[in-house]
Amino acid sequence: MPSFKYHIVRKKKFTGNISISISERRGVVVNAPFWVTEGLIRRFIEDKSEWIKKHLKHIGAKKVSKQYSEGEKHLYFGKEYSLVISSSPDFGRSSINLTADTLEVYISKDTPKEKYPEKIKDALLYWYLEMGIEIITGKVNHFSKTIGVNYKKINLKKVSSIWGSCSPTNCLSFNRKLIMAPHEVVDYVVIHEVSHIVHRNHGVNFWNLVKSLDPEYKAHRKWLRINHHLLAL
Ligand SMILES: [Zn+2]
Questions:
Q1: Element containing residue 31 per DSSP (H, E)
Q2: What's the 139 CA to ligand 1 centre distance in angstroms?
Q3: Separation of 193 CA from ligand 1 center, angstroms?
Q4: Which of 49, 103, 104, 138 matches a 20 to 30 Å C-alpha distance to 95?
């Protein structure tokens, strides 16, 4: 028996295959022609159970939304930090301080308690983007110097599926979620985009250049494929 629930939707048509769809709203739905036996459907589900479980986990991870509460863990360049929330002695803007294990958030003392999560979220995002652009710029400068190329400018973007891009005029853009990924993974994305200044394609020479700067690039690319859902900014 599989560890998840599913429901079956019967199709009136005689033709067609059994298919599975998974969504946050409807869960696991099996579409099957009317004549397919329950036993056959069960076998089909069992065959696909690993795949289904993987997708359910993915959806579950996505659904966990942040509370911005004391002690909650937040990722910053691959490491988890606990939130420590304090009321700031000053009025006005909130501030963030990074320690070895914590992200200290100081919230303006005129903020009512019910506004805290929203204020913390804004303060964190502001800080993440400020730190992110600084650190990623440092990485781009390092690797473009190593390769011996120049870029025009760097942007951090709010995009869902692209990790980085390099325009024909050598403007480099990076997904802002990378601020949560481990340094070596961010390095790979930076190396990838900077290498595009030399090779505008994904040919052998391009990958050789990437590999010369990041011998583990395949593992880093895989890390992004598997863990992208952990990065939510
Ligand atoms: Zn590319």
A1: strand 27-33
A2: 17
A3: 6
A4: 138
User: Phi and psi at residue 8, in whole multiples of 5°?
Assistant: -105, 130
56 alpha carbon to ligand 1 midpoint, in Å?
29
Determine how many CB atoms are found less than 10 A away from the CB of residue 21: 12
Number of C-beta neighbours around residue 112 at 10 A: 7
Mean pLDDT for the stretch of residues 58-83 = 86
| pLDDT value, residue 149 | 97
| Alpha helices, H only, the chain | 38-47, 49-63, 116-147, 183-198, 204-213, 217-227
| 27-33 and 79-88 beta bridge pairing | unpaired
Rounded CA gap, 188 and 124, in Å?
25
Reading the block at residue 47, the tokens are 């065959």
pLDDT confidence band for 64 (50 / 70 / 90)? low
Distance 165 CA to ligand 1 centre (A): 7
| CA atoms within 13 Å, Cβ hemisphere of 138 | 7
Q: How far is the CA of 85 from the centre of ligand 1 (A)?
A: 40
Q: Which of 121, 130, 115, 137 is nearest to 186 (CA)?
A: 137
Neighbour tally for 57: CB within 10 Å: 11
Q: How far is the CA of 228 from the centre of ligand 1 (A)?
A: 17
Considering only CA atoms, which of 212, 223, 145 is closest in space to residue 180? Answer: 223
Global pTM reads 0.74
Q: Which of 49, 55, 4, 10 is nearest to 31 (CA)?
A: 10
How long is the chain? 233
In the numeric block, which tokens belong to residue 86? 């304090």
Give the separation between CA 210 and CA 175, rounded to whole angstroms: 19
